[in-house]
Design brief:
This protein is mostly helical. The chain has one domain. Helix content is 74%, strand content 0%. Helix 5 packs across helix 9 and helix 6 runs antiparallel to helix 9. The longest helix has 33 residues. The chain is globular and about 50 Å long. 33% of the residues are buried.
Length: 238
């Protein structure tokens, strides 16, 4: 193996590790820790929103910097050829009801067939919402951190994995596993659901090479789920 492939692999690995989110989350938590109102991200929606939005900002800046160092741009990473196509928008919108149905089915299946992983009908994060302001902040987080940051992060990591380590589809699978693991705080069934959706969004990125459909479906699903939970509470599963 020549020197160049080894260097490329190490560079790609370094960029992947930097953008997994641990660094940006830790930096954000450290900056917010001196402020009592924001020191515990699970203590209030304001604290969680501050952490997620600050971490998202750091992630976007980091990916922009790493892309620039390779002579690339955020625009090409997000939009591919730079043109938003109607079919990507239609795909993103069409995925939203499908995602709700799949989530409902898996939760119902877990309740009846796999009670050991069923986390119940309540959501530890969504229950932090106590006011319309909390809902608004959470929706902002859903759109910025979920819809944009996480899909930008997914696209970047898949791209870097493909550049240095293997096929894009394998990178999508590995990141989907990590994505699911990151949702364990909400329960094992929620982690499985997140992993399945992560695989779906990763597969769409690999096929389309832009984040229009994934960002749209991810952000809309998260925002609509927050609205549903705020007004109607935990969903009653079959």
């Amino acid at each position: 193996m020549s020197v160049r492939p080894v260097r490329l692999r190490l560079q790609s690995l370094g960029e992947i590790l930097l953008t997994l989110g641990f660094l940006t989350d830790a930096a954000s938590a450290a900056l917010l820790s001196p402020f009592a109102a924001f020191s515990n991200p699970l203590g209030s929606v304001r604290a969680l929103a501050a952490l997620m939005l600050l971490s998202s900002l750091f992630m976007m800046l980091l990916i922009a910097l790493l892309s620039r160092l390779r002579g690339e741009s955020l625009r090409s990473l997000c939009l591919g050829k730079g043109i938003v196509q109607r079919r990507d928008i239609a795909l993103g919108l069409g995925l939203v009801p499908l995602i709700f149905l799949v989530s409902f089915f898996i939760k119902s299946l877990a309740r009846h067939a796999l009670p050991g992983i069923y986390s119940g009908e309540r959501n530890v994060l969504e229950e932090l919402m106590k006011s319309p302001l909390d809902l608004g902040l959470f929706m902002l987080v859903a759109i910025v951190a979920g819809g944009f940051r996480e899909e930008l992060q997914r696209a970047f990591i898949i791209q870097r994995f493909e550049a240095g380590w293997g096929p894009a589809w394998l990178g999508a699978i590995l990141f989907a596993l990590l994505f699911g693991y990151g949702h364990l705080i909400q329960g094992k069934d929620e982690a499985i659901i997140a992993g399945i959706f992560g695989l779906l969004w990763g597969g769409i990125y690999v096929a389309r090479r832009n984040i229009v459909a994934t960002s749209l479906s991810h952000g809309l699903y998260d925002a609509l789920e927050l609205i549903r939970y705020y007004f109607w509470g935990p969903m009653r599963f079959l």
